């Protein structure tokens, strides 16, 4: 017997803002917080908050970002004093660590969205699922690349700029190198002892 899955979605907050593309263009977008819950055989699962960005197809079309943890957690971008004065904030998301930079129309909207996203990101980080331990020496290549790429001193970015992409790619090129400690051979140890 197969399980039937249905998805419930409802919008809790909706606001118009500006979003930056290509380090140059600011264009109008509509931001929504959507709560998504899947029902499997009428048994509800965990409720997941989603950030929905409605934008023109010219700038890449609509985007939905899951704020509820996962393998590639969402992170808030660091902001400068100038960014705060200009009511700008942003976040990093997805396996390729894409960056989104937004500009609020007024202080009240900025405070509301910055606080809401910060709380959602912090809550997701606290509830982040644990994964099987990397069974080899050293850190997992994919997770270490993820952690290294989430911090940025440069706040500017675009949706499709090559600088936004984690240079590590999708992780398929990583190869695990087993480093073994070699013991010196008898000939080399005897020759070295004869020198002393």
Task: Describe this structure in a few short sentences.
The protein has 196 residues and is of the alpha+beta class.
Explained architecture:
With about 200 residues, the protein is an alpha+beta fold. The chain has one domain (about 5-175): Roll (PH-domain like), CATH 2.30.29. The protein has four helices and seven strands. It has a seven-stranded antiparallel beta sheet with strand order 4-3-2-1-7-6-5. The protein is globular, with a radius of gyration of 23 Å.
Whole-number total of structural domains: 1
Q: Percent range for helical residues?
A: 10-25%
Q: If helices are DSSP runs of H or I spanning 4 or more residues, what is the number of helices?
A: 4
| Strands ordered across the widest β-sheet | 4-3-2-1-7-6-5
Q: CATH superfamily assignment? A: Pleckstrin-homology domain (PH domain)/Phosphotyrosine-binding domain (PTB)
Let me know the average pLDDT.
66
Characterize the largest beta sheet: strand count, sense, and whether it forms a barrel.
7 strands, antiparallel
Gap between N and C termini: 78 Å
The portion of residues forming beta strands comes to 25-35%
| Global Rg | 23 Å
Helix-strand pattern: EEEEEHEEHHH
Query: Any idea of the CATH topology?
Result: PH-domain like
Total strand count, please? 7
Low-confidence stretches: 130-134, 140-196
Shape descriptor reads globular
CATH class: Mainly Beta
Which class best fits the helix and strand makeup?
alpha+beta
CATH architecture: Roll
